[in-house]
Amino acid sequence: MQDLGELIELHREALGLRPSGHPHRSSVLRNLAQRLSDRYKNRGAIDDLTEAITLGRAALDLCPPGHRDRDTSLHNLARDLGMRFRKQAAMQDLDEAIKLNQAALELGPSGHPHRSSSLRNLALCLSDKYEKQGVITDLEEAIRLGRAALELRPPVHSDRDESLINLARNLRMRFQKESG
């Protein structure tokens, strides 16, 4: 954690050296947001996640359509909004996360390195939405996307377990809905 704290401070210092208009400002914003998101995952301090979202929005603003880093900015911001939804249950965070995940997925065609993560994150958001609102089409889409993510994560993939667990959870919810 001490290293992560130092890393965050170094990114803050680098951000100061890349003022508004600097061509690489978006990458420093994105990296700082990622480190704050990492610290949130470890410490659970909502302030870190809130700042990560603010910085993620600023990075996305600097990556208009056609920018080479737009997909990464969309993906990271969507992930952080999804985490904040799971902590605070604000539907506007979930709705925005779904839209951003869909946009990231559109920019990540078959073979794109982030495609499996985008599929998984969108499936997770739709599953969360189903749990909150009970619309079965959200769950069906989450299952479809979860299967697609799993196909992109072979048995040796480091995140395959996440895809298996999420898909199993969604199939269990569908079974309970249909049998209950």
Short description, anyone?
The protein is mainly α and 180 residues long.
What does this 3D model show about the protein?
- The chain is globular.
- It contains eight helices and no strands.
- Helix content is about 80%, strand content about 0%.
- The chain has helices spanning about 1-15, 25-45, 45-60, 70-90, 90-105, 115-135, 135-150, 160-180.
- It is mostly helical.
- It has two domains: about 1-105, Alpha Horseshoe (Serine Threonine Protein Phosphatase 5, Tetratricopeptide repeat), CATH 1.25.40; about 115-180.
List keywords for this structure.
180 residues, mainly alpha, Serine Threonine Protein Phosphatase 5, Tetratricopeptide repeat, 2 domains, globular
Alpha plus pi helix count: 8
What would CATH call the homologous superfamily of the largest domain? Answer: Tetratricopeptide repeat domain
Strand content: under 5%
Number of domains: 2
Number of strands: 0
Form type: globular
CATH architecture of the largest domain: Alpha Horseshoe
Q: What does the main sheet amount to?
A: none
- Topology as a string of helices (H) and strands (E): HHHHHHHH
Structural category is mainly alpha
Average predicted local confidence, pLDDT = 93
Protein name: MalT-like TPR region domain-containing protein
Organism: Pisolithus tinctorius Marx 270
Pfam family, one: TPR_10
